[in-house]
Amino acid sequence: MGTMRTVPDFSVVRSGHEVQIPEQVSVPWQGLHRAVSRAPTIPGPAPAGRGGAAPRMRSGAAAAPRHRRGGAAAAAPAGAAGGGGGRRGRKKMPGKLKVKIVAGRHLPVMDRASDLTDAFVEVKFGNTTFKTDVYPKSLNPQWNSEWFKFEVDDEELQDEPLQITVLDHDTYSANDAIGKVYIDIDPLLYSEAATVISGWFPIYDTIHGIRGEINVVVKVDLFNDLNRFRQSSCGVKFFCTTSIPKCYRAVVIHGFVEELVVNEDPEYQWIDRIRTPRASNEARQRLISLMSGELQRKIGLKVLEMRGNAVVGYLQCFDLEGESGLVVRAIGTACTLDKLSNTSAFLPACNSPSKEMKEIPFNEDPNPNTYSSGPSTPLKNQTYSFSPSKSYSRQSSSSDTDLSLTPKTGMGSGSAGKEGGPFKTLLRQQTQSALEQRGGSPRRFCTRREFPFFTLTTFPPGFLLHVGGVVSARSVKLLDRIHNPAFVGIMGNTRSYKLLDWNSFNSDEPETRDAWWAEIRQEIKSHAKALGCHAVVGYSESTSICEEVCILSASGTAAVLNPRFLQDGTMEGCLEQRLSWQPGFFSIGSEKGEVDFFPQSQDSSSLLGIEEASPPGCGFCHIPYDELNMPFPAHLTYCYNCRKQKVPDVLFTTIDLPVEAIVVGKGCLIQARLCRLKKKAQAEANATSISNLLPFMEYEVHTQLMNKLKLRGMNALFGLRIQITVGENMLMGLASATGVYLAALPTPGGIQIAGKTPNDGTYEQHISHMQKKINDTIAKNKELYEINPPELPEEIIGSPIPEPRQRSRLLRSQSESSDEVTELDLSHGKKDAFVLEIDDTDAMEDVHSLLTDVPPPSGFYSCNTEIMPGINNWTPEIQMFTAVRVSRLSNINPTNQTLNKNFNDLCENLLKSLYFKLRSMVPCCLCHVNFTVALPEDELVQIAVTAVAITYDKNQALQANKAPTEKSQQRASTDNEEQLQFPLELCSDPLSSQPFSPAKEVLEGASSHTGIPAAQRATSVDYSSFADRCNSWIELIKLKAQTIRRGSIKTTTSLEKASPLAEGYLRHRSVPSCTNSTVSVVKMTPLSFLPGAKITKYLGIINMFFIRETTSLREEGGVSGFLHAFIAEVFAMVRAHVAALGGNAVVSYIMKQCVFMENPNKNQAQCLINVSGDAVIFVRESELEMLPVQPSAAAPQHTSSAGDVTT
Amino acid sequence: MSSDLDVFVGNTTLIDEEVYRLWLDGHSVAEAVARRLRGGVLEREGTSVAVLQSDTRDHYRTFQMLERLLHAPPRLLQQLLFQIPPERQALLIQRYYAFDEALARELLGKKLSKGTKKELDEVSARTGVGIRSCRRQFDNFKRVFKAVEELRGPLAENIQQLFLLPPALARDYAAIVFFANSRFETGKRRLQFLSFADFAACAQSLMGHWSQGALAPEAAEPDGDLPKSFLQDLKELKVLVADKDLLDQHKSLVCSALRGKISVHNELEANFKALSRALVNVGGKLTHARDVRDFFVDLVEKVIEPCRSDKWSPGDLRLFLTHYTAAPRNLPGFRHQALWERYMAAISACLLRMYHD
User: Where are the transmembrane segments (chain B) (predicted)?
Assistant: First the structure.
C-alpha cells in the first residue's frame, strides 16, 4: 500500500473524475484523442478505483470474499458477483473430462547411460493429477493408459487448460520433466464443434523446444440437457474471423462485447528470483492460459446476457506491463448465429415468453432520451454540431467541453454498471438507467448505451449504408506500479494463478485499465457521431508499451448501418427482438435517430427511400454527415456512380472492401512509415513529450498516406491500420492500408510540387524534374494497377496528369464559378492536386521518400485486406508465412531523416525479400499483409510480418474481364449471399432485391447527369477521415503548405468490373496431391476463407501463448536460429491442435504478439508469441462437386469426410 | 542499418532446390550467395544482394534444422515441425543421400571408421568433392552401415525401408555396405579402371546369387555377410581343377561347344586350364578374410587381364562363361552342379561387368 501513489479518500470519487478532465491534455483532432494522464492525474483514476473499484472489478471472477476496500459499500457485493457470481445463481453445469494417454514417439534421450528414456505422463486438470505407468527404456513408449476422469464444473472447463507433462522416471533423483502439452478443451464445450480431441501433440519445453510427440485422446461429457447447456457460457462460440463465419448465418448481430482481466506477471514476482527460468515460463504460460479462459468465459456470459450465442471478430490481446502487471483484454462482436443446416433452431428460443416479457419494457421505454440522439435540445445540438468555431474552442479549453460528448463522470460508473452484480440479471438498459439514477447525473442525454462498435470488417451487402471515415483515438498513460507484498502468500497455493485472489488486493488496477479504455471508446463514439454516424465498424484496439508509458489506441470506421434493412427483417420474430436487445446499435440506428442526423437534408423526408434506391455499388461511399454542417472541411461531389448523392473525394476506412463496391483496376498495399526522435525521459515528462509528438506523427502519417494514394492514382483506402510504437528514444508510426480506385469517387488529382523560390532558374529546373518524375510515376502506377476509368466525352482535360500550370489555371477559373461548395470550404481552397511545397530539406525528403517505394515485381500484387480488389480467380495454392526482422539503427547521431530512411528501407527490403522468397508462386498476391513494429531496445527495430500468398490464374482473369457485366454481377450477388451467409429474409427486402444492377443505374446516372457543370462536381483532396478541427492542424497546414485544388473531373461507369472475390467463383486447379504423408496437412491463413474450398465446420478458436527461452543462444544458431525454430514450433503446435480437433485448416490466423528479448553477452534470449485463429474443416470445391447434394445446403454434413482431407 | 535477426518461416516449408544443392555441396552462406549471383538470379528477379543473403541464410537454417531429421528419414515424415509436401520430402531425402560416385569409389571396401574420416581431406582433394560434402557423405555411408549391419533380410530392402531411398539408390547403398562389410580391396592400381557402378553391380550380383537371402528370405544372417556354409562348400568345387580328368573333359566340352563361335578359340584352348584354375580358386579362397579382400584383384589379374591381352571380345567372354558354367552338367562324377551354377552365376556377372577398358 505504501507504494501506491496516493491514498485519497474515496469520498472524493466523483470529484476525482471531474478534476481529472481539465488536467488531461486533450487534443481532439479529427478522430484523434491524446490524453496524457499527468502526475496529478494518475491519482485521479486511482481514487475512483479505490472507491468504485469493487463494483467494477473486472477480474474478480467468482466470489470475491477478500474485498478489503469496500469503499463503494453499496456496490461491493455486486462486484463480487460480477463475473462468475451471476452464474453462480444458476445451477452449475458439471461435466466429466476424460483423458487417455496413448503413446509417445521420438522422445529425447534422458538417460545418457542407456541412451533411452523411462517415460511416464502426468495429466493435470485443476487440482487433480493422474499419472500413467512408467514405460521403461524406450523413446517410443506405448502407455495406452486407462481413461483418466476429471469431474469438474463448467467454469473450470472454460478457464483451465488440460496440462499434460511427460517426465523421465528416475529412481534415485527427482524425475526430469521432458516437456508439456497444454490443451484448450474449450472446443469440446460447443455443441456443434469438435467432439473429441485426438492426435499427436508436440511435447514442448520452454527451454528445449519441441521434444518428441505424444498421442492423447480427450473427451468431455456434459451432464445436462441441451437447453441448460445453452444457458451456460460454455455454449458460446468464439470466432476470430471478422465476418460472419462461412457456414453460419447471422440471425442477430448484437454488438460490442469487451472485457479485461489483470494479474501480476509471474516473471516479476519475488518467487521468480529463486525458481528456474523453466518454472517461470511455465507459470506464465499457464497463467495466461487461465486468464484467457477466464476472459473468454466472461465475454461468453455477456453474450448470453445479450441473448447471443457467439462472438465474431474476437480479438484478445496481452499487455505485458512489466512490473505493473499483465493485462489480458478482449473485444468482439456478439451475434446470434444459426448454422445454415438448421435454420429453425433459433426461432423457438427467441419467441420464448420469458424473453418477450423482458422485451416489452424495452420497446416502450419511457425515457426516450436514452435512445434518441435527437438534436432538438440545445444541448444536443452542441453535441453533434461541429461548426469550426466550436471545434476550435474545444481544444483550447481542453477536453472539458468534451463533457457534452463524453461525460467522464458517467464513464466510470457506466462501466461499473456493466459489471454491477445486482443488475447483472437485469436488462442492460435497465442497469444503465439504474446507474444513472445512482450517479445522479443530470446529463442523461449522453448515451449510456453500449458502444455501437463492431469488430467485423466484412458485412452483408446493403448492411453498410454509409461510411463516414476512419475514427481513431489515442491516449498516453502512465502505468501504475504496484507493489503489494500482501498477495504474494496466496500465490503459493495450487490455484494461485486463479486471479481472483490477487485481484481483490489490487482492485484499482483493472479499474484503471477499464476506465482508460472506456474513455477511448467514448471518444471514438463521439468522433463517429461527429461524422454523422451511429456505429463504428472494423473496430480494433491496441497498445504500445515502453517502460511505464503506454499508448492506448483504438480505431474504426464510422458508419451508418441500414436500419430499414434491419427492421424489414423483423417480419421474423427474432429480428424484432434484436432491435430491442441492442440499444446501442439499434436505437441510434432507428429512423428517428437517423433523421436527426440529416435534419437539414433537402430530401430528408425521403431520405431513407433514397438510400435504398441508390445502387449498392456506391451507396456506402455517400456521405453520412450533413453537407451543410460538415464536421471537417471536405470537398464533395455527386457520386460518380449514381449521380444522386454526395461523395467525398477520398475515403479512408478500416474495413475490408465491401463486396458490392465497384472498383476500377486493382488495389495495392500502401504504407506510411515514420520515425520521430524523442528525448529519453522519465514518467510524466516522457508521457508529455510523447503526447506532444503524436499529433505531428498522425499528421505526417496521414500526409504520406494521402500522397502515396495519389501517386497510385487511387482514391480510397481500406483496411487502414495505424500503429504508433513507443520506444525509449523514438516513436515509430506505421500505417498500412489497401489503396483502391472506387468508381463512385472522383478521380484524384495529381501531385504538384511548388518551390519556395520560384525565381531561381536551377531550382525551377529541379522542381520541374521532380514534377516530371512524379507524373511519370503516377502514369506508371495507373498502368500497373489498371486504373483506367472511362472518361466522359466532354471531359476537357484529357490526360490524367495535365501539365501543372495549365491545369491550375484552368481549375482555378472553374473553382471561382463554383459556389455551392465554397461556402463550406473552410480552409484550403478549391484546388485539385496536392501541392507539395518544397520549402525545406524536410519536404525534399518527403518527396524523395515518396518515390522510393518500389512497386512489387511483375506477377505480384499485395494488399492488407482479405481480398485483393480486382483479382477474382484465385487458385487453391496458398502459403502463409511469418517473417521477423530486427535491425539496429546504427547511426551515432540519428536524425529524423536518417531514421525515416532507415525505417523505410527496412520495410521496403522486407517486402522485397518476401517477393523474392515467394517468386515461385507467381502470379500471386500477398493478402492480409500485416506488419507489426516493436522497439525492443534502444536502436533496435523489430518488424514482424504475417501474410498469405495466394496464387491466381492470370489467363482466367482476362476471361473474367470479358465476361458480360450482368453475369458477373449476378454471380457476385449469389456469391455474396453464400459468402456472408446472411439470412435470406434479410436479403429479400426491397433494398437487396434489386441491388445488383449497378450497370443500369450507372448508365442512367451518367446520361442524366452529364450536363452538370464541372464546377458543381468540384472535388478536393482532403482528409475526409482525419480532417482536423484543432489548432495544430492549422499550424501544420501553415507549416506544410498543404494546398488543395480541384481535381480533374472524370466519371467512371462501373461497367468495367465489379469483381468481388467469392468462393463460387474460384477455379480449382488441381494441386499435386500428397498421398502417403503420415502427418495430415493443416493449412493456415490469415484470411477468413480458403480459395477453392468450402469451410464446412468451425471447430473452435485457437488461442495459444508460448514462451521460449535459451541460455545457449550461439549454439542454437544465434538469434535468427532461435527465433526461426521457435516460430516453426509455434506453427507446428497450432497445426497439431487443429489436426487433433479433426480440422485441416486455421483461418483468420494472426500472430498477435511476438516479444523478443536477447542478451547476447549472457548468451541468452527469450521470446513470447501469442497466436490465434479459427480451426476449421474445409472441403475442396472439386470434391464438393462430386457429391450429389448442393454444396451450400450440404456443407455441414460433409464434415466427417473432410477430416482427413490432405493436400 | 544491419539486420541482427532476420527470419522467414512459411507454414509450408519453402525448399529452394538450388540452395539445397549448394548446402549439400558444403558451401558456406557466402559462397552460396556468390554462386547464386553468378547464376544470374539478381538480373532475373531484380532483387538485391542483401535479399539474396537473407534468403540463403533462411534456407541454410532450415536445412540445418532438417538435417537432424534427415538422419532418420522416417522421422522426417512423422515430424510435426516442418510441413513439407511428400514429394518435397522425397526430394530432400534423395538429395541428402545422393553421393558422388568418385567419392564412393574411393571409400569402397574401406572401413567406415574415424581413421578413414580423417583421410577425407585427401579424398576430397583427389575427387574434387568439397570436404564438408565428403564428410556428410561419409557420415551417410556410416549411418546406413550402422543401421543395417545387424539386420536380417535383403540389404537393399532394409535400407530402402529405413531410409526411404529410391530403389536404385538403396541398391547402391547396399553395395557400399556390402563392400565395407567384406572389406574387398578396390584401391589397387590394376582395379582403377573399375568404376563405382561396376563394383555396385558386382556387389548386387554377389549378394543376389550368393547370400542366404537369395535362397531363403528368412535367413538368419544379414545379407552383407556372405554365408559361411556356402563359402565353405565352395572348396568342393576345386575338384574341377584338381582332378586332371575332369579338367580335360571340361576343356574339351567347352572348346568343342565354342568352336567357330568365338574369335579367340585358339587362345581359349591354350589358356583354358589357367583360366579355369583361376575361376575355381577365387571361390576356394573365400573362407579366409584375407583372401576375400583379394577377390576382385584376383578376378582382374587372373581372368580379365589374360583375356584382355588375348583380345577377347566381351561377346567371347560371355559365350565362354555360359558354356564354361553349363558344361560340368555333363561331366561324369561331378555332383556339385547346383553349387557350381550358383557360384558361377555371380562370378560371370561380375566378370562381364568388369570386362571393359
Answer: none
Q: Is the pLDDT of residue B164 over 70?
A: yes
What is the spatial distance between Cα B243 and Cα A675, in angstroms, rounded to a whole number?
99
Task: Tell me the helix, strand and coil percentages in chain B, rounded to 5.
Answer: 70, 5, 25
Cα–Cα dist B50/B43, whole Å: 14
For residue A642, pLDDT over 90 is answered with no
Strands (E), chain B: 2-10
Q: Does B82 touch chain A (CB under 8 A)?
A: yes
Nearest to A550 by CA among A472, A480, A503, A484: A480
Cα of first residue to Cα of last residue in chain B, in angstroms, is 61
What residues in B contact A947, CB-CB < 8 Å? Answer: none
> What is the Cα A1157 distance to its own chain's centre?
26
- Chain A CB contacts of B14 under 8 Å are 879, 917
Q: Where does the pLDDT of residue A44 fall: very low under 50, low under 70, confident under 90, or very high at 90 and above?
A: very low
Confidence band of A514 (pLDDT split at 50, 70, 90): confident
The greatest distance separating any two alpha carbons of chain A, rounded to the nearest whole angstrom, comes to 96
Element (H, E) at A12: none
Is residue A307 within 8 Å of A581, Cβ to Cβ? yes
CB contact under 8 A, A1131 and B11: yes
User: B282, B308, B280, B307: which is closest to B295 by C-alpha?
Assistant: B282
DSSP string covering A904-917: HHHHHHHHHHHHHH
Helices (H), B243-336: 244-258, 265-284, 289-293, 295-298, 305-309, 314-326
Whether the per-residue pLDDT at A807 is higher than 80: the answer is no
Burial class (CB in 10 A: 0-12, 13-18, 19+), A998: buried
Alpha-helix runs per DSSP H in A1010-1071: 1031-1040
Q: Report residue A1000 as a C-alpha cell.
A: 443500369
Of B12, B51, B80, the CB nearest to A1136: B80
Strand partners, A560: A466
> Does the pLDDT value for residue A230 go beyond 70?
no
Q: What is the pLDDT of residues A136-193, one digit of tens each?
A: 989 999 999 999 999 887 777 778 889 999 999 887 777 888 999 999 888 888 766 6
Task: Return all residues near A742 (Cβ < 8 A) that are at least 6 apart.
Answer: A618, A621, A651, A661, A662, A663, A664, A715, A716
Which residues from A are below 8 Å from B48, CB to CB?
A: 909, 912
Rounded Cα–Cα distance for residues A859 and A951 (Å): 10
Q: Name the residue of chain B whose CA is nearest to A203's CA.
A: B80
Tell me the three cell numbers of residue A185.
478443451
pLDDT digits (tens, 9 = 90+) for A869-895: 888 788 888 999 999 999 887 666 778
- C-alpha distances in Å from residue A615, one per residue of A610, A640, A747, A991, A1166: 10, 12, 19, 9, 54
pLDDT in tens, B111-152: 888 888 888 888 899 888 899 999 999 999 999 999 988 887
pLDDT of residue A1116: 87
Best mutation target among A201, A211, A888, A916 (most B Cβ atoms within 10 Å) is A916
Q: Is A883 on the interface with B (CB under 8 A)?
A: yes
Do A1167 and A1155 touch, CB atoms closer than 8 A? yes
CA dist A288 and A1162 (Å) reads: 27
Q: Judge whether B294 is closer than 8 Å to chain A, CB to CB.
A: no
ipTM over 0.95? The verdict is no
Q: Which residues pair with A256 in a beta bridge?
A: A333
In whole angstroms, give the CA distance from residue A56 to residue A332: 20
Q: pTM of whole model > 0.80?
A: no
Contact B3/A1117, CB-based, under 8 Å? no
User: Could you say which DSSP state residue B82 is in?
Assistant: S
Q: What is the mean pLDDT of residues A295-303?
A: 88
